[in-house]
Amino acid sequence: MHYDLQDLRVFLAVAEEGNVSRGARRCHLAPSSVSLRIRGLEEALGVTLLERQARGVTLTRAGVVMLEHVRRCIAQLGQMHADLLPFAQGAAQHITLFANNNAIHSHLPDDLARFLSTHPRVRIAMEERLGTEIGGAVAAGQADLGIVALGPDHPDLTYLPYREDRFVVIASAQKPMARKARVRLADCLKEPFIALPNGTALHTYLMNQADALGARLDVCVQVSDYPAIVRLVAAGVGVSIVPVSVIAPSDRETLAVIEFNEPWAERHHRICVRPETLARHPVVRAFIETLTGAPLPD
């Protein structure tokens, strides 16, 4: 590759500014130097990235594709430096944690804050993964530990109880369903649903549960997080199925929270970890003791 990181930064600046001179000022370079770098980048790639116009530049179709790649590249490099910084500053340890969406948005924030208050030099990289992927990833060494609620146990991992949770139906207090104390999934199938996006663990799980009944959920809106789901449900757009742990006390003023009368609604969150990790990494052991609220046996 006959270009370097500075060439990518120059292209990013010019593309975002829409002007060579403004891009040059942002990079603290002369416009002539920026023009040379852009031309060299285009020659190296064999494509035209920018269309030069009287009042600036516009991206070609190739330039649009290039811009998205460069943004991801620069962001990934920034994250790399952020991940390495604790080691440069003498951090005691670095922990990688994979967890499902439910745990990340409900249980883990307070537990992480409590652990880091007593271990301020530890750095934790937390990634959201599908529950069905987490066990295999931890067993393969891609993470130090994981939080799972679904899927079979992996034979190479130790499992420890973490948090109990359960699915509930939420509906606007104005809907007829709000008068029910308990429901089954079959009772909800005629309602329009607010759901997380396709591919998320919860969306897939609920679709499978409906499929087992020979039915489907009528998903009318998909949003990326639980607070958005709560707002839409409170507005009367539809109903939803969520973990009870994501419902704030203030949400209950505008929502009806209806229990499920089915065993699959129970959520047993567990920690999974390799036995050798527990034996060799005291800081991971200390982290797990914070999560479970109890000392681990020797």
Automatic annotation (TrEMBL):
<dbReference type="InterPro" id="IPR000847">
    <property type="entry name" value="LysR_HTH_N"/>
</dbReference>
<dbReference type="InterPro" id="IPR005119">
    <property type="entry name" value="LysR_subst-bd"/>
</dbReference>
<dbReference type="InterPro" id="IPR036388">
    <property type="entry name" value="WH-like_DNA-bd_sf"/>
</dbReference>
<comment type="similarity">
    <text>Belongs to the LysR transcriptional regulatory family.</text>
</comment>
<keyword id="KW-0804">Transcription</keyword>
<dbReference type="InterPro" id="IPR036390">
    <property type="entry name" value="WH_DNA-bd_sf"/>
</dbReference>
<protein>
    <submittedName>
        <fullName>LysR family transcriptional regulator</fullName>
    </submittedName>
</protein>
<keyword id="KW-0805">Transcription regulation</keyword>
<keyword id="KW-0238">DNA-binding</keyword>
<feature type="domain" description="HTH lysR-type">
    <location>
        <begin position="1"/>
        <end position="60"/>
    </location>
</feature>
<dbReference type="InterPro" id="IPR050950">
    <property type="entry name" value="HTH-type_LysR_regulators"/>
</dbReference>
<dbReference type="Pfam" id="PF03466">
    <property type="entry name" value="LysR_substrate"/>
</dbReference>
<dbReference type="Pfam" id="PF00126">
    <property type="entry name" value="HTH_1"/>
</dbReference>
